[in-house]
Every structure is written in structure tokens, then in C-alpha cells.
Amino acid sequence: MRVEAAMTTDVVSVAAEASLHEAAGRMLDASVGSVVVTSDGNPAGILTEFDFVAAGHEFDRAFSEIPVYAAASRPLETVEPSASVERAAHQMHEAEVSHLPVADGLDLVGIVTTTDLLAVRDRIDDDAERALRAREDWTTRG
Fold first, then answer.
1. CA triple 121-100-59, angle to 5 deg
2. What is the rounded average pLDDT for all residues in the chain?
3. Which segments constitute the CBS domain (predicted)?
């Protein structure tokens, strides 16, 4: 299965110059765990819930005074939509990330998370189980 079948296409993004307060508002409004940080309209980093915790510990200022680029994770790790979900899972494991933006060239086309990959795994397991049962039914009747 390819990443494009598992990814979410409604990616929440925020400009690098925006404040952490604004980014937090976008995340809360969209009920997501990360926002992709853009610079000149191109994906440049990612800001996750973990990054907010780290920023709260590191900076002695209000989130409204801290620019997103100061807390975002960079460089941005991405995967292509045509990559396999296995490749995405391996990449996430190696990079120790749970949110992986999906880019087609410089165009941000989606995001895939560990939750998305677990849902896909459950679907694959269910499909395999149904296929195995169908094969067993066919061989016992034949």
C-alpha cells in the first residue's frame, strides 16, 4: 500500500514568522498534533506537541512572543506519496518522528502519522484474515 492511501490531505500549516500562540490556536481548532511550518510558501519544518513542551521549558516568554521558527523541528523530514507505507514507517522510526509530511517535489500534499499507519495496518490485517478464511473455505469445499 502506498502512502497516498494512508495520508491525510488536509494539512494544517503556519508561516515561520507566526507566533507559537497562533500555531497552538490552529492546532486546537483543527484537532491535530502538528502543523507544518512554511517559509515563502514552501514546507520548511514541523511543529509538534512535543516542540511546544520543549519551547515552554526553554523560553522564558509568552508563546505570543515566540516565533514558530524558533521552536520548529528542522530540517523537515518528508516522504513521497508513491512510497510504500512500510517505507514511511521505517523512515519515521529512523528519524524518531510521529508526523511525516508528504511532499511531491516541493508541493506539500499530505501528512501521515503513526496513527494513520496503525489504521492501515489494521485494514491490511483484516483483509489478509478475510482472504485466508476465503481460501480455507474454498479448499474445504473443493
1. 130
2. 89
3. 7-63, 72-129
Please give the pLDDT value at position 1: 87
Q: Which domain holds residue 33?
A: 3-141
CA distance 36 to 92: 16
**Number of folded domains in the chain?**
1
CA-wise closest residue to 39 among 59, 19, 58, 15: 15
111: left (phi over 0), alpha (psi -120 to 50) or beta: beta
CA distance 102 to 85: 12
Q: Is 60 exceeded by the pLDDT of residue 77?
A: yes
**CATH, residue 11:** 3.10.580.10
pLDDT confidence tier of residue 142, bands split at 50, 70 and 90: low
